[in-house]
Specification:
With 137 residues, the chain is mainly beta. It has one helix at 16-27, and strands at 36-42, 45-51, 60-65, 68-73, 94-99, 104-112, 115-122. The chain has a domain at 32-78 and 85-122: Sandwich (Immunoglobulin-like). It is 9% helix and 36% strand.
Length: 137
């Protein structure tokens, strides 16, 4: 029996990149830190919210790398001589990646009460009808 994959289906041409993307995301072991929500705020907009308590704006970096939204956090080490009897609040770094579809653009990012909100907007493409000329061979 032959395994039918998305990229090899005869009616789905050029979707091999999508299949590789799905495989890559299935293999990546996101550990779940920091926790996040994704909500649809309107028909054409979304909001990603990450719980980043303890991080300041300068500890966070948001980049867009080849249709992939990457959010990184790295806290600076405390150098003020504090002595912890118990340290239950981890000061660990993180990286969260979200693959964006074509036509999805990153809006603004806002820090509010320990939550980082990143707004995304879907741009509606113009409907294009193209006529293809047939030439004699």
């Amino acid at each position: 029996m032959t395994k039918l994959t998305l990229g090899s289906h005869p009616y789905l041409l050029g979707f091999d990149q999508l299949e590789r993307l799905l495989e890559r995301n299935a293999k990546s072991g996101n550990e779940g830190y920091p926790p996040f929500n994704i909500e649809q705020t309107s028909e054409n907009s979304f909001r990603i919210t990450l719980a980043v308590a303890g991080f300041a704006e300068e500890d966070l970096a948001i980049t867009l790398e080849d249709r992939q939204l990457v959010i990184r956090g790295r806290q600076k080490e405390d150098q003020d001589g504090r002595v912890f009897l118990h340290r239950g609040i981890a000061a660990r770094q993180f990286q969260r990646s979200f693959v964006l579809a074509d036509g999805v653009e990153v809006g603004e990012a806002v820090m509010e009460n320990g939550l980082l909100h990143v707004d995304l907007n879907r741009v509606q493409p113009d409907t294009v009808v193209q006529s293809i000329q047939i030439r004699k061979g």
